[in-house]
Write a structure and sequence with these properties.
The protein has one helix and 28 strands. It is mainly β. A hairpin with a 4-residue loop joins strand 8 and strand 9.
Length: about 375
């Protein structure tokens, strides 16, 4: 009798385990078929447990020595591949970081690291002296920084440094230590469309593109005149949305624009826009319409970071997207679905800064397979 009940118990256990495995397979496979999520890529996560000072990462850069730099809401992080060095504001030390909330990063052609902060102005860091130099706004000095909130930093092909602030666009003369301010002027259509500057980039023709909370702008540095681009209701050739969150010029010279509503592509010859958007029921469309970061890797793959839909990879020949999202039950997936920063290092690793999940990274040179 004991053997009979023992057999039934073992059979019941086998059936339960089989049912569990089938259920687990359904859970894993179902999201892939619904959202066109590519499960063949393995992500490595780096966050507070590994030494990152804070889990919100809005900007990433690699310096000429190979160190990775991450801007968080609680300090500037330098990473050597094994451990972090965290730099923060030090009371009564004018040569330390001016503010711990970092919004933007840029390494210039001389090797200086430029840091834009939430309310501490602009900083430059010299790796040779391990010192910071601060630049702040002064309402009584028109040659100072426009605002202490610095959201974007960009060095153009001529070595000029452009600063995007909460109160306009600045061009910095490093030799003189002075800023030239560009702002919105009421009634002047050749001025900046709006003063909250989010992103800056340069195209092949030398025009400086400026993304604001109210329109995209193209600046001719020779004349100081802006051309504005706004969304026009019913015109599919206009930009889709005025709130610009990402700018990137690819290797073919094409300008890509991320907005609060769609990914836009600018055709310079026709001076018009086309766009990609999330379509309900289409698993190969954009995963989320809020596009906050864009990056083209060395293999000419265009990566799109969204604010809630994870990371997308665009096949420009077919117009299809593959998405990479966080799976809370799988540590080999993207750490968080709000992607604010993208950067590929010189070894071919794509670093992904998220709003709450720290940093994820993936080797773009190697095809990797996750085993379930």
């Amino acid at each position: 009798m004991g053997n009979k009940f023992g057999f039934r118990a073992r059979l019941s256990t086998v059936i339960e385990r089989f049912a569990f495995i089938v259920a687990a397979m359904i859970v894993i496979v179902a999201p892939v078929s619904v959202s066109a999520q590519d499960a063949s890529v393995v992500f490595e996560r780096i966050s507070i447990e590994q030494g990152l000072s804070q889990s919100i990462v809005e900007c990433i850069v690699q310096d000429r020595k190979g160190f990775m730099w991450f801007g968080t809401q609680d300090g500037l992080n330098k990473y050597d591949g094994y451990q972090f060095t965290v730099m923060r504001q030090k009371p009564r030390d004018a040569n330390s970081l001016s503010h711990n909330n970092i919004l933007s990063l840029c390494e210039d052609h001389t090797g200086l690291i430029w840091i834009g902060t939430f309310n501490g102005g602009l900083n430059s860091y010299d790796p040779l002296t391990d010192r910071f130099t601060r630049y702040t706004a002064n309402v009584n000095d028109p040659k100072s920084l426009s605002s202490n909130m610095v959201r974007a930093i960009f060095e153009d092909s001529h070595g000029a440094l452009w600063i995007g602030t909460e109160n306009g666009l600045d061009r910095f003369d490093r030799e003189a230590g002075r800023f030239t301010q560009f702002r919105n002027v009421s009634g002047d259509s050749g001025s900046l469309s709006q003063n909250v500057v989010r992103k800056i980039c340069e195209d092949r023709s030398g025009f400086i593109w400026v993304g604001t909370d109210d329109g995209l702008n193209r600046l001719d540095p020779a004349t100081g005149i802006f051309k504005r681009y706004h969304a026009a209701h019913g015109d599919r050739r206009s930009i889709s949305n005025d709130a610009v969150r990402a700018l990137h010029v690819d290797r073919e010279g094409v300008l890509w624009i991320g907005t609060e509503d769609d990914l836009n592509r600018y055709d310079a010859e026709k001076d018009e826009f086309s766009y990609y958007r999330s379509i309900s029921g289409d698993p190969y469309s954009l995963s989320d319409n809020r596009v906050y970061s864009i990056y083209e890797d060395t293999h000419s793959v265009l990566w799109i970071g969204t604010n809630g839909g994870g990371l997308d990879r665009l096949d420009r020949k077919t117009g299809r997207f593959n998405s990479y999202r966080n799976d809370p039950f799988n540590p080999l997936t993207l750490s968080y679905d709000e992607v604010y920063a993208l950067f590929e290092d010189r070894s071919g690793v794509l670093w992904i800064g998220t709003w709450g999940g720290g940093v994820s990274k993936v080797d773009t040179k190697r095809k990797q397979f996750a085993l379930y």
